[in-house]
Design a protein that fits this description.
The protein is built from 24 helices and 19 strands. The protein is an alpha+beta fold. Strands 11, 12, 13, 14, 15, 16, 17, 18 and 19 form a nine-stranded mixed beta sheet that branches. Strands 2, 4, 7, 8, 9 and 10 form a six-stranded mixed beta sheet that branches. Helix 12 packs across helix 16 (482-509). It is globular. The two termini are 44 Å apart. The protein binds adenosine-5'-diphosphate (ADP) and magnesium ion (MG).
Length: 729
């Protein structure tokens, strides 16, 4: 099998007539039209097979391979009725985006012809030659096999003519090579740990779901202008460009009227998303010009992650129909707000309870406090890891900049919840027993049963904010696969819930009443995880100093932030929970460092090319015009007058010379620095050099280019400027 047969998902989409629903066609009519969801399973599968499959999906019971043939046959029948001719195993390698290899539904019929076929074997497992995907050294080329294996918990769907089957991707020796495999394990771990804790409060609970509601921010740029910016095209961001005279100072974009062409893009996108079963709900303008947001109703985490990957592909495809390109990069424009993908996260039970939401009874609220405090503990203990889980070369431009969560993980709780936690922490043990007792609470918190956590109490500077019935992990980048953050968070919470239960059970074993034991452990936890709680301004300089004092991870270098994955406590956490072993974590870090280096390497090359081929020649040409002008003026005027009239141009000539010389010298220096860096064998060391030496050179060269942009004749400047990229729709 050749490597070329893999394509990123967006190239699989072909332009075809848009099916616009008639007014009679409500979203409820076409929602999930292209998804092999339960109703289709019911229709296309024998009832016994349906029951077994649903049991696997709902209860995580091991898939009975004997049903695979029937499921494949049912899926094929449905897909072919929908016009599909091909199928693919759809997976999330450790790159951005998804991968797929399309095969037609055909086999030889033994009589010289072909017949449409799709066997259970092909549904369940495939062996792609996956050596072109990053694996961090887990697979040697002689052992280049990887398996993709069907994930029945995320339904198959059709894109154009292809049935896409969500799969995990693992190596021949069983290590995960993707995001989905560890995510499924992490979700399983948090499910089990949370069910065990839930049982203190409610014996009916059999399953706990991890929920994710992502908010996707993005920019739209006119297609023609985009094509004229090689930096946007090749790196996803502008490597140069002076501030526009107007940008977001007036703050007139946020929640403003959506421009017509954008609205028509959004509508089209939403219809296509709905057909793929993505429950998109919210759309609005964002803070920066040409920046927008899209959010669905939250879903079970694995499905939500798949849906986010799909929507990013859809956005790329549909933006083109409307003459736009979508920018998913975290920081396409310097000095303008970047894009995030807030991950709204919570846990909920199969009995319909949201565990992060306060309830009506004391017991409900004790359960609420239990889950809040355990989450805070997990975030506190693994704050460095959580930061690593959202770090990348691209998100680094956003984190710590003024509009984004800072590069320090802390949690905002709001006034009410902070008060409640403060209360519990400062209460004496006896009082807590009182809380537990039938006589009511001595804690002066009889209002707790009425607790309505105020959803409007927001802090936009917090990277991990409590928002009423969930936490909003705001540090996640717009381009990221949410799975990375969700693996770290769910595993950390699972680990903490297990420890919590162990401590509570130990107290109960000593004769402590259950509620008193729970409160006692909560009280200790509140005290321990205090440093993670911060309701103040996360953008302030004082917070940086304060966070360092509190012992929170304040590292800002992305290659060093990745070290968090290999700290003993991280390895222990992932290994104990059976999610990833040390070898896998090391391999993944190799991939992370390598990707980091490559991104900066590409940017450096593109900037070098643009500087030498666009900027310096144009600046020199303009400078020559100025020189000619100065000489001609000398012929026209007596010396005194000439000097006076040509003084400014003489200054400009020199300024241009200063900038172009700096650019030429430093592009050369950057090439030399890269040559030295590229010789470093260790991926970590190489990434560190790229971070410390080469990334700053990009910024310095840019500074001089941006100065030239202000000087050089606008007619000559070959690249569209910020004012055009950001304001032309
Ligand atoms: P914001 O005001 O933060 O911009 P949005 O309405 O844009 O909020 O998005 C909020 C997201 O959070 C939506 O995807 C929503 O479905 C999701 N959400 C709401 N409640 C929960 C919950 N309990 N768990 C997870 N996600 C949730
Ligand atoms: Mg929002």
């Amino acid at each position: 099998m050749s490597k070329l047969r893999f394509r990123v998902v967006e190239t699989a989409f072909k332009k075809k007539a848009i099916e616009v629903p008639t007014p009679e066609e409500r979203p409820s009519e076409y929602f999930a039209k292209y998804v092999f969801n339960r109703s289709k399973m019911f229709k296309y599968l024998p009832s016994k097979v349906f029951d077994k499959l649903i049991d696997t999906i709902d209860n995580g019971s091991t898939l009975d391979r004997s049903i695979a043939g029937d499921v494949a046959a049912g899926m094929k029948k449905w897909a072919m009725e929908m016009g599909a001719t091909h199928y693919t195993h759809w997976f999330h390698p450790l790159t951005e985006g998804t991968a797929e290899k399309h095969d037609a539904f055909i086999e030889h019929d033994g009589k010289g012809g072909v017949l449409e076929d799709f066997s259970g074997k092909l549904l369940v497992q495939q062996e792609p030659d996956a050596s072109s995907f990053p694996n961090g050294g887990i697979r040697n080329t002689f052992e280049a096999r990887g398996y993709t294996a069907w994930d029945p918990s995320s339904p198959a769907f059709i894109v154009d003519d292809t049935l896409c089957i969500p799969t995990i991707f693992i190596s021949y020796t069983g290590e995960s090579l993707d995001y989905k495999a560890p995510l499924l394990k992490a979700l399983r771990a948090v499910d089990k740990a949370a069910v065990d804790v839930c049982r203190y409060f409610n014996s009916d609970v059999k399953k706990v779901f991890s929920y994710l509601g992502w908010e996707q921010e993005y920019f739209l740029v006119d297609e023609g202008l985009y094509a004229a910016r090689p930096d946007l095209l090749l790196t996803g961001r502008t490597l140069m460009g002076h501030d526009s005279a107007k940008n977001q100072q007036l703050e007139d974009h946020y929640f403003g009227a959506i421009p017509t062409r954008v609205a028509s893009f959004m509508k089209d996108l939403e219809i296509e998303a709905m057909k793929l079963g993505i429950p998109v709900k919210t759309r609005h303008n964002e803070v920066a010009p040409n920046q927008f947001e899209l959010a669905p109703i939250f879903e079970e985490c694995n499905l939500a992650v798949d849906h986010n990957m799909l929507i990013m592909a859809l956005m790329r495809k549909i933006s083109r129909r409307h003459g736009f390109r979508v920018l998913l990069h975290e920081k396409p424009f310097k000095g303008i707000n970047g894009s995030g993908k807030h991950n709204n996260w919570s846990l909920g039970t199969d009995t319909g309870l949201l565990l992060m939401a306060p309830g009506k009874t004391q017991e409900d609220n004790l359960r609420f406090i239990t889950f809040i405090v355990n989450t805070l503990m997990a975030v506190y203990k693994h704050n460095g890891l959580l930061k690593a889980s959202i770090s990348s070369a691209t998100n680094a431009h956003r984190l710590g900049a003024n509009e984004a969560p800072p590069a320090i993980i802390s949690s905002f709780l709001g006034k009410q919840l902070s008060q409640v936690l403060g209360y519990i922490e400062n209460s004496k043990k006896d009082e807590l027993v009182g809380f537990a007792g039938k006589q009511g609470m001595k804690l002066d918190i009889p209002q707790i049963p009425e607790l309505m956590i105020d959803n409007t109490d927001r802090n936009r500077t917090s990277p991990f904010a409590f928002t009423g019935n969930r936490f909003e992990f705001r540090a996640v980048g717009s381009e990221a696969n949410c799975a990375s953050a969700m693996i770290a968070l769910n595993t950390a919470v699972a680990e903490q819930l297990i420890l919590f239960k162990k401590d509570v059970d130990a107290l109960i074993a000593k004769g402590e009443p259950k509620v008193a034991a729970i409160l006692e452990v909560i009280r200790k936890c509140i005290n321990i995880c205090k440093p993670i709680h911060f309701d103040g301004n996360g953008y302030s300089e004082e917070w940086k100093a304060e966070a360092a004092k509190r012992g929170l991870d304040c590292e800002t270098s992305v290659p060093l932030i990745f070290d968090n994955y290999l700290k003993p406590e991280t390895i222990a956490m992932f290994e104990t929970a059976g999610i990833m072993n040390k070898k896998e974590l090391e391999a993944r870090n190799e991939v992370k460092w390598e990707t980091y280096t490559k991104k900066i390497q590409i940017e450096a090359r593109v900037l070098g090319d643009l500087a030498m081929n666009h900027i310096v020649p144009v600046a020199t040409q303009y400078q020559t015009d100025l020189i000619n002008n100065v000489y001609k003026m000398k012929d026209l005027y007596p010396d005194d007058k000439w000097k006076k009239l040509s003084g400014k141009n003489m200054e400009l000539i020199e300024e241009i010379a200063d900038h172009t010389t700096y650019i030429q010298e430093n592009v050369d220096a950057m090439v030399e620095a890269r040559k030295i860096a590229n010789k470093i064998e260790c991926e970590r060391e190489k990434a560190i050099v790229y971070h410390d030496k080469i990334a700053p050179m990009l910024e310095e060269i840019r500074y001089h280019i941006d100065k030239l942009e202000l000087i050089v004749d606008n007619q000559m400047w070959t690249l569209p400027k910020y004012r055009e990229l950001l304001f032309i729709r």
